[in-house]
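Morning run. Coffee first, then this:
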Amino acid sequence: MNYNILVVEDDIDIVKLLKIYLENDGHKVYCSENGVKALEIVENTKIDLVVMDIMMPEMDGYELTKRIREKYTIPIIILSAKNEDSDKILGLNLGADDYITKPFNPLEIVARVNSNLRRFYDLNNNVNPTGSKTKLIVGDLVLDIQKLSLFKRGEEIVITPTEYKILSLLMKTPGRVYTKVQMYETINGEYFENDDNTMMVHISRLRDKVEDDSKKPEYIKTVRGIGYKVEKK
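And here it is:
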């Protein structure tokens, strides 16, 4: 299936390169050189995924991510020359689903675009992946598979599509330990070298949302040297 991809980047050479590769893969590509225009496109056009730079005129990528997340759940991939862990953590915490640093291989961009599209749209087209179950319950956490919503003690917790997939995987089999590679391959279908740190950020963000004290997690446990599990309750 072909999708509408928005590329937000003020470097015209990068825009042309991504446009060629994404269109060659069958997608329709919209382009914007700044965040303000990009937000207008998102609000007036059916966009399925956004690839954006951070450093842009008028509205930077961080602010654009925040503004998109106020209304939309579409996948967001940040593509930036800012390669410090703090930059990646900030982007993911604001709601981005993926973070790729420049310089980049355009074929990897296409692969990540497609894996994020599969992850998001498979999630929405298969709202009952556990068969007869419509809810996954662990302690005070209730993951509603039909509504794609998370509740804790009756209060809804807003999570991103990526966070939903991670939590759904872990909550289906409480007590089972998943390695980072297993989690990424299950969620994304593909694993890249720098995905270890990205998964750590997603887990950290989930803990901030679901734990009473994220420094002393009761639900999402780290199994040192192996991976993660949801503790049985």
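The chain has two domains: 4-125, 135-230. Good start to the day.
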